[in-house]
Structures are given as C-alpha cells and as structure tokens.
C-alpha cells in the first residue's frame, strides 16, 4: 500500500465553474488581492470582504464535483493506497465527492472565525461585519480563510505526511504560492517520487519526476485508473 500525498489547487475546481485566481493582473474576481484577501483589506473595509466571500460561498454551493474530484474520492475509497488530500481550495467539492482524509490548508468558505477570540463555527450563507461571535459576542466575525500574509493551517501535519510519503502528486496548481509551491522540493529531498497533473506546466514543473498535462477531468481519472490497476 503506497502512501500518497495529493496537493490540489484551483485547476481541480475550475471545470466545476469556480474561477481561478489569476496573479498576472493582480485581480481576483475583479477585486485587488490586497482589498479582499489580506487582514489589512478586511480591517479597511470588512463589508466589501464579506460581500466578496458571500458571493464565492454562493458560487461554491451552486457548483458540483467534477470527474477529477470524483476520481480522487474513488481512489481513496478503493483502499489500495493510503491517501491524504491537501487542498488549497476553499470550496467543499472534495467533501461532496466523497473524499474523507482531507486538509484545507487555506481554510474553507464553510467556516466562520472570530478575529477577537479565535472561536470557529459553521458559516451561514451570508456574513456581515455586525455579526457577533457566538462565544465572546464581539462583532469580529470573518471568513475562516487563510489570507495572504497568514500561516496556512495544519502545516506540521502536512510536512510530516510529506516526509512519510511514497508519492507526492500536485494537481491543478500553478506552483507560485508558498508554502505549497515548496512541497515538491521537500518531497524530492526526502526521496519521495513526484508527479504533476496540470493543465499546463507549472512554475515548478522541472522539479517533478513526471508531468502530465491536460484538463483535470481527463488526466486525473486516467491516473487514478492506472493506480487502481497496480
């Protein structure tokens, strides 16, 4: 039984209709990253940030898991390999496809976080600046999303899994956002086999032992079929 760590990025959910982050123009859904995805942006205009994530939450709820999500869930359910899926995505499409051993390293749209006391709870469909924390009652509710400048979640657990893995697979990620972009180098340093499945070569494609390029809904199910035959 191989131990496999799979990193997924926006390219996995893009074919479900969820728009990807485009760093080239500095905009995300027509907003500056600094305005909607940083603690400083939230401090300046919490209403704008809440509107932005309310829209993203609605878009994610309307989307459906695609063939790539379903294939990864099928690989896990088969039980022939030990899988950990680490996703940079904040939607719940992996969960709805059936994946269970999952880490949302950048948080999730389904969660709310109190910026005052750190309490977490399920997010409603719409959030607003005046929403109070159910624990401390402070009106400091924010999306439970890791913004630029903040530390991703459960990193020690992820690093430990990478060190213990037999195979690291990166799917649908550009390879330009750290620390996730550094996973392949750390895996290679530890002697772990590495594979890239991406629409096009990522910025770190040269670090992978093997790379296969094409739509996630094609290359991921094909790879899963191979893994289930070995």
Helix content: 25-40%
In spatial order, strands of the major sheet run 5-4-1-9-10-11
Contiguous helical run count: 9
How much of the sequence is in beta strands? 15-25%
The total number of structural domains is 2
CATH architecture of the largest domain: 3-Layer(aba) Sandwich
Largest sheet: 6 strands, parallel
- Rg over CA atoms, rounded to whole Å, is 18 Å
CATH classification class of the largest domain: Alpha Beta
What is the CA–CA distance across the termini? 10 Å
Low-confidence stretches: none
> Structural class of the secondary elements?
alpha/beta
Give the topology string: H per helix, E per strand: EHEEHHHHEHEEEEHEHEEH
- Annotated CATH homologous superfamily of the largest domain: TPP-binding domain
Q: What's the overall geometry?
A: globular
Main location: cytoplasm
Catalytic activity: N(6)-acetyl-L-lysyl-[protein] + NAD(+) + H2O = 2''-O-acetyl-ADP-D-ribose + nicotinamide + L-lysyl-[protein]; N(6)-succinyl-L-lysyl-[protein] + NAD(+) + H2O = 2''-O-succinyl-ADP-D-ribose + nicotinamide + L-lysyl-[protein]
Pfam families: SIR2
GO molecular function: histone deacetylase activity, NAD-dependent; NAD+ binding; protein-malonyllysine demalonylase activity; protein-succinyllysine desuccinylase activity; zinc ion binding
């Amino acid at each position: 039984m191989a131990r496999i760590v799979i990193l997924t990025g926006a390219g996995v959910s893009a074919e479900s209709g969820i728009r990807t982050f485009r760093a080239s123009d500095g905009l995300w859904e027509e907003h500056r990253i600094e305005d909607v995805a940083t603690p400083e942006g939230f401090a300046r205009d919490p209403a704008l940030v809440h509107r932005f994530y309310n829209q993203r939450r609605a878009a994610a709820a309307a989307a459906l898991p695609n063939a790539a999500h379903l294939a990864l869930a099928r690989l896990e359910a088969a039980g022939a390999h030990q899988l950990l899926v680490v996703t940079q995505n904040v939607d719940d499409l992996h969960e709805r496809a059936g994946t269970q051993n999952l880490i949302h390293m950048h948080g999730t749209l389904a969660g709310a976080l109190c910026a005052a006391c750190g309490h977490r709870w399920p997010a409603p469909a719409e959030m607003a600046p005046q929403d109070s924390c159910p624990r401390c009652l402070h009106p400091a509710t924010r999306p439970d999303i890791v913004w630029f400048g903040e530390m991703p979640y459960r990193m020690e657990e992820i690093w430990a899994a990478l060190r213990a893995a037999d195979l690291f697979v990166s799917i649908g990620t550009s390879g330009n956002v750290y620390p996730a972009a550094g996973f392949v180098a750390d895996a290679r340093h530890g002697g772990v086999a590495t594979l890239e499945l991406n629409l096009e070569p990522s910025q770190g494609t040269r670090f992978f032992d093997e790379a296969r390029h094409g739509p996630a809904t094609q290359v991921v199910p094909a790879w899963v079929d191979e893994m289930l035959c070995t």
